[in-house]
Every structure is written in C-alpha cells, then in structure tokens.
Amino acid sequence: MSVRVLIAERDPALRNQIRDTVASFEGCEVVGMARDGQETIQMAVLLIPHVAVISQDLPGISGLQACEILSALAPDVMSVLVTSGKAQDKLDSAMRAGARAVITKPLDDSQLRTVINELAELRKRRESPEVLDWRDPSRFPKVVSVTGAKGGVGKTTIAVNLAVLLAKRLPNRVAIVDLYTQFGDIAMMLNVTPKHTIAEMESLCDEVDTDLVQSYVTKHPSGVHVLAASVTPVPLSAVSAECLDSLLYVLKRTYRYVVLDVPPILHEATLHALAHSNMVLLIANLFDLTTASDTKKIYDALQQEHISKENIKIVLNRVLKANRLRTADIERMFDCDILAQIPNDRRMVTSVNQGIPLALSDGDSPIGRSFTMLADAVAGPIGYRSHAERPATKKGA
Q: What is the dihedral of CA 360, 364, 367, 368, to 10 degrees?
C-alpha cells in the first residue's frame, strides 16, 4: 500500500516542485495539494493522508495552527512542518502543536524522503493488531480482589466459581491467588495439592520472575492456575507487601485475569492487594444487620485507604426471599447498585466438599446462572478476547 501524502504550500512553483519530488519517491502517492491553512485542514479531514507536509507560512491559518488543529481533528495524520528558519528554533512549538517532524527550506530531497518513510512506518505500527488491542482498556490484564467484612460470607466460594468461569473463556489465562496464609481454602475447594506456596516465596522475593511463579503454580483441569497461600497456618506477615507487589507484577504480565481471595483483615499486604486491584468484590449477605453494618464499615475504610469507590462492587450472597434485609436496604446503605446476587443453594456445601465448583457441575441452575452473570460483569461485554485470542474466521463466513 502506497504512502498517501498531502502537500500544503502557498507558493505555486514550490508546491509543484514538492509534488514532483514526493511523487518520485518509491511507494509514495500525492493525494492533494493545499494553498492555505483552511484548505489543508479540510483536505486532511476528507482525504485522510498518511503524511501531511505543511509549510509554516500558509496564509490565513498558519502551518503551526494547522498542525495543532489536525492533531485534534485527524490524529492519524502525521504532520511535517516546513519552516524557513532553523528547525531547532521551531521544534518545541511544533511538537506542542502536534507536528511529528520539522524540516527547513530549501528542502533536501533525501531528508524529506526519510521523514515521510519513518512517519509512514510509525503510522503503520500504530495500526498493528498489538497496538489496536492496547487501545481497548477492556482487554487489559485485570486484578479482581474478592473479600468481605467477616468470615463465612462466601467470598472464597465466589472467588473460585468466578475464576473457573473466566477460565472457561480463556483457558490458562486466569490465575487465582489465595492470600489467606492462616486458613486459606482455595486449594481444597478446587481439590488440588500445591507443591509450593506463596509463603515459601517470601524468602525469594528478590528473585520473583515468570519462571519462578510458574514453578509455584498448580494447574486445575478447568484451566485455572492456582497459587496457594500456605499449607499450614502462618502469620499474615509471612507474605510482605513487597513480595506481593513483585508477584502481582509478574501475574499481570502472564494472565488476563488475576483473582485474589483476600482475607477479611485490614493488614499491610491485604490493603496493598486491594489498592492494586482493578475491581474489589465486597461480599455480603442479607441475613442480619451486623453483617451489613460490618460490610459498610469496611466499604468506608477502603475508601479512606484511597481505593476508588468506583472500583468497589457489592455482591450479595445466599439470597433468600426470607432474608431479613432487602436488596434495596443495602443499596440505600451503600449508596450504590448491587453488582450481582447469588441465590442460596444447599448443594453448595456438597460442591465444596467434593472440590468441584458448582458453576462447572451445574451451570444451568439459578445459582450457576448467577455466577455466569457475575463473570460477565467482571469481564465486560468484550473484555475477554484480544486480537490474538479471537477465533479465526471461517472461509466464506
């Protein structure tokens, strides 16, 4: 594909000269010639050239102003400002205006060719699939913390079912991390036996890299990669915020989703995990006022720790018609909408005992569908497929 070039120059003879020069460059095509700043902007917006060679001394709207306006109206057009003075004198103001390069008159053919080719290559890289994926924040790695105000609210159950459903969409791209070094249950709920634990990683904090983390991972048949906290209870301080920071850095470079099961304790490491999460799922139930009140306390405490209110989502677990509280009561108490409601299901105990997440064994049940809705809310409408992960289009489709 040829490089489309727009030329903007007030002097007819010089304008034609630049046209002939650019047209002689291999792979270049002159798509338009403008005589003033207004024409330059209009033609750039209509023709969408790859590169616009713009003289500074255009009548009406100057070349510098045209570069500035085009940076807002047509940011994909690479502007080259042509000046009569020293290029360095105009460089700062041109860069601030949005120009990609500055060259001086009289034009040097070799320099002009080099600048056009380099800018065309830069524009081509900006349109590559890898860069296009970066333009969509929904495809960025996402850290999701699942926690609650007290034990027994079902945070681990929800974390496990969420992880396996995300892995159903992206096998081997989801990690679940148990941060409860005293009584973590992730490994038991997934019926896996870890060879190594995060508590053991603390002594290797300075050596944490992809290879080390992968040697600590236990792979579950669902496609979830499991990182257990510890085999026997150890203090929460067994995993420092520094070690956790290194671990999260590696996990975000390896996985699309990192689900953290965070204990209901405000501690240096747990606060670090919550503060570095893209989403915090705060699990509560409607059984009694004390649970709702404690959940509100931790909700407020997290915001005082500079965790954005927009990142904290309320999930109601074990919802029954007979619950003392109603969803509307919680919404009024927290002044926010409820992200998801998980109905009560007696089979959950059996699921936990068997080490088989209910979302996998009975995904079409009311509770299975509620877990799917939660996974959809976490992933977003298109948030689980990058360009490289989309299925190939069948011929004739």
A: 30
pLDDT score of 384? 41
Q: Please list the ranges in the chain whose pLDDT falls under 50.
A: 382-397
DSSP-derived letter for residue 279 is: E
323-332, long-range: CB < 8 A, 24+ apart: 323/285, 323/286, 323/287, 324/286, 324/287, 324/288, 324/289, 325/286, 325/287, 325/288, 325/289, 325/292, 326/286, 327/286, 329/286, 329/292, 330/284, 330/286, 330/292
289 Ramachandran zone, left/alpha/beta (phi>0; psi -120 to 50):
alpha
- For residues 93 and 64, the answer to whether their CB atoms sit within 8 Å is yes
- Topology annotation, domain 3-134: Rossmann fold (3.40.50)
What's the angle, vertex CA 158, arms to CA 157 and CA 163, rounded to 5?
A: 105
Taking the C-alpha atoms of residue 305 and residue 104, their distance in angstroms, rounded to an integer, is 54
pLDDT at 96: 85
Is residue 219 a contact partner of residue 191, using CB atoms and an 8 Å limit?
no
What's the CA gap between 198 and 238, in Å, rounded?
Answer: 9
Between the CA of residue 13 and those of 9, 17, 60, 263, what are the distances in Å?
9, 6, 20, 75
What is the CATH superfamily name and number for domain 139-381?
A: P-loop containing nucleotide triphosphate hydrolases (3.40.50.300)
Strands 142-148 and 101-104: unpaired
Pairing of β 101-104 and β 224-227: unpaired
Residues 6+ apart with CB under 8 A from 305: 271, 274, 275
> With contact defined as beta carbons under 8 Å apart, do 356 and 188 qualify?
no
Q: How far apart, in whole angstroms, are the C-alpha atoms of residue 122 and residue 142?
A: 29
Domain with CATH 3.40.50.300 in the chain: 139-381
Residue with tokens 């405490």, as numbered in its chain: 301
